[in-house]
Amino acid sequence: MENLGKTPHLLLDTAKGKRYFPLVGRNYWTIGRGRENDFAIGDHCISRNHAILQSTETGGFLLIDLGSRNGSFVNGRRVGIPASLKNGDQVTFGKTNVEFYCPPREFGTLPTYNSFDRDTMVLHERRLTSVMVVDMRNFTILTRQLDEKILSSLIGNWFRQAGEIIRSAGSWVDKYIGDAVMAIWFHGENEVTQADVLQIFQAVNDLNTMTKTLSRQYPVPFELTIGAGINTGYSMVGNTGSGDHPDYTAIGDTVNAAFRLESATKELKLDVAIGEETYLYSVELKQIEQLFSQNTVNLKGYDKPTLTYGVTFQDLEKLLELNE
Questions:
Q1: CA atoms within 13 A on the CB side of 196
Q2: Would the pLDDT of 108 be above 50?
Q3: Whether 84 contacts 100, CB under 8 Å
Q4: Residue 126 phi/psi, 5° resolution?
């Protein structure tokens, strides 16, 4: 317990004493009434899957409400969009109050692994991966035009359903970033199968269908749309999980390019952009040459133009039907 002052954590006062939730060894933690959550809290006012705490690359933390019935609050203010937490913030889930601790000196540094995660193993290896980044379009405009409570429910539902779709496709949400999610698929040592590619394309298509459905369920000022970037290549993969919660994440150019490809979809006026390597692993799919367009784009941070292949969701759905 002597290291608690240096360890980011949540503190909950209960009738049986204080409960500490250390925030180390992972990228994000789920909070809710259900036992499957990382931090399960027995409060009937808390939703089964209530919220997510996400660590950032700079050492900070974001609180993301998952469209919970009774809301998440920071210092009495309801969380509508992902909210940054500061040391000493009072956080409320339903009717349960917790305190957030992260001493200022910890921000911008890597977590210190101590007695709370003594079983944590940090491993790094070079793996063949596919990285998908999906972003909700015009989200800033939406935050200005939609009631805060409705916005919180909408974005929470989108995050939750996105997580379910991605998990069913053999991956998980590695990062929740504002109005976007990032997912990683691990492949064999030297190959990506056609089934692997179709699984990823199906996940993107399902995310689009889900987003359209939410558009009809909420009083939004315009139809919700998403853009996606998919890139395949070798990444450095780290396992910083512990116990029953292994936590894998990838870093490197493959990941960076996936984010840039998603941004490029706006310039290309297309819905999905994939990297050259992803396309090469997809080239045997029926009619992919007719449905995907070849483009050369200047990705931010890259010296040379990048070859990419783009498609609309309408044509992506055709591709999936042809290759069932």
A1: 23
A2: no
A3: no
A4: -90, 120
Predicted confidence (pLDDT) at residue 85 exceeds the cutoff of 60: yes
Sign of CA dihedral 78, 82, 84, 87: positive
| Chain centre to alpha carbon of residue 10 | 21
- Over the stretch 249-262, which tens digit does the pLDDT of each residue have? 777 899 999 999 99
Report the DSSP beta bridge partners of residue 127. Answer: 235
Q: Looking at the chain, which runs of residues are DSSP E strands?
A: 9-14, 17-22, 28-32, 39-40, 51-55, 61-65, 72-74, 77-78, 83-84, 90-93, 96-101, 123-136, 173-177, 180-186, 226-239, 248-251, 272-275, 293-297, 306-311
Within 13 A of 237's CA, how many CA atoms are on the CB side? Answer: 20
Q: Which alpha helices (DSSP H) does the chain contain, by range?
A: 139-145, 148-168, 194-217, 253-268, 276-282, 288-291, 313-322
Decide: 63 and 82 in contact? Cβ < 8 Å.
yes
Note whether 266 and 227 are within 8 A (CB): yes
pLDDT of 6 above 60: yes
Region 103-108 average pLDDT: 52
The pLDDT, as a whole number, for residue 92 is: 95
